[in-house]
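Limitations
The structure tokens in this dataset are predictions for the assembled complex, not deposited experimental models. Users should treat interface geometry with appropriate caution, especially where small molecules or nucleic acid strands are included. An illustrative entry is reproduced here so readers can see what is and is not provided.
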Amino acid sequence: MEANVKPVITVRNLDLSYDDYAVMNNLNFSVKKGEIFIVMGGSGCGKSTLLKVLIGLKEPEKGEVLYDGINFWEQDEPTQQKIMRRFGVLYQGGALWSSFTLGENIALPLQLYSALSPAQIKEVVELKLALVGLSGYADFYPSEISGGMCKRAALARAIALDPDIIFFDEPSAGLDPLSARMLDDLILQLKDTLGATIVVVTHELASIFAVGDNAALLDTETKSVIAIGSPKDLLANSSDPRVIQFLTRGERQATPAGKEFKL
Amino acid sequence: MLAKISFEYPVTGTLRVKLSGNWQIHAALPAENEVISELASHKEVTEITFDASGVDGWGSGLVSFLFHLIRDCERKNIQVSHQGLPQGVEKLLTLALRVHTRLIPQKVTHAPFLERVGDKALQVGASALTLLDFLGELTVAFGRLISGKAYFRRDEFITIVQKCGANALWLVSLISVLVGIILAFIGAIQLKLFGAQIFVADIVGIAMIRVMGAVMTGIIMSGRTGASFAAELGLMQVNEEIDALKTLGISPVEFLVMPRVLALVIMMPLLTLYADFMGIAGGFFISTSVLDLNPVEYWQHTQSAVRLANLWVGLTHSFVFGIIIAVSGCLRGIKCARSAEALGEATTSAVVSAITSIVIATAIITFICQVLGV
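Predicted assembly:
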């Protein structure tokens, strides 16, 4: 990645806590245009909360989230909405609206925010479904298809408005290895074809190495970013034992002997 | 053979605990107190060893016994040697006793009484603000609907109307007919004393149309539709469907709540009219068949007793109840937390708050009618 590419997302000194329990502690990182950025870390490290702050669902206590230099949480609601319209979000469970067919799910954002005619919307819906490999499923309800298909349909909805930033929350959660791989391939294709900036929140090592250009590792104990860089570089060059342990599933031990028990 | 413990002192300062018998979890187990009292009477002991050669079988019973004993000895600075224990037990113990480096968040234990009272008061204040906020959003949504800016799906609206209207007819019929019958019987017993049984028609007619039809329909709809709204929206919250709406810049109140409130506000007065009719029919049936009243006379009495004002009072009730049921169901659903337990709580509190509010609203409307002389 070239060094002079401007960051699309910049996170500065982000803090958040529930009562007295910190869930994000002074987070700092930036995501460059057109890259796939991974937010990784063990369970309970604050990944999902960070995602909520990034997509505008939860206000942080302190710190800034800048989109192309604009401080999101300082804007008035209409401006925030305008920025949010640049986002596509794939939720962990898909979050398709259950009373809508797949086609209606994808059509809704188009009906609200595009100037297309109903016939054109139908065509775009078919295209988006074809992109995720679900041609012909427009009239199915989410309850009538499998979990993996729901996720792909949700991805079709997330890219309905050709967003320039796409967020993925645990994309491979609950999927079999082949479906997870297929979703990783889709992420890579989206980056190449749409030129979108992609943020993936995950702890799946296979996905991290398969798609990540850059990554930030959140630490479960300190709730802060302990490493930033390309996942492969981090694995090869990091001297932090926590980073190596995470990226090797604890197989390469860096802690003093005997501290961790192995059966 | 029962689990047993015995003690040996091979060297001064070393206690050997001999374990024998069956140490499985379904067998009766000795308490670790035996060892602790042995240690209390022998203060010179600095090390404990085990001899488990006599153990016939073991499970979590033995591991749990040893786990607590070892922790206790650690506090007293007594060395515990794991040698002599079955290999599996040793592994499980090491697993359970390994150092937990992860920070454990502080769990809120029992707060002092005053703090709890304060917390509750703040919660009440916060929930009042939430309700006001919600009602504000709902008003804005209706404003957008009237000005034609709101997103409104006609098909979905009709489905909701059908679910909370037509599909409730059987239940409303059954309850209303029975309420009419009950009113007729209660009235008849008293009026018979004065030979004025025909006034049953007046009682049934006025009671049903003025208040009972609306209240009974309100209670039925709280349990039926209010609960279903709360569960439906609550599950959407759990599945992140509501978050997905918010990120698209769609107000969940406009998209989900407004059509439900509108549907119920339209259907409640219609259902109430239907319930009034069914209640009067129930009273009529019992009075003419069991109480031997003249049908024509009964009908004339009903006509002369029930004034149009009674009908308006009844319909006002039902309109207010419609808002109460839909708002409490949708509010509880949309504010539901992300767990199965929270979903249950949301549904329960939707029904409870709707029924409580209905009773309070009835009292207030009755009082206002009294003051106005309606």
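Some entries come with short summary sentences. For this one: DSSP finds nine helices and ten strands in chain A.
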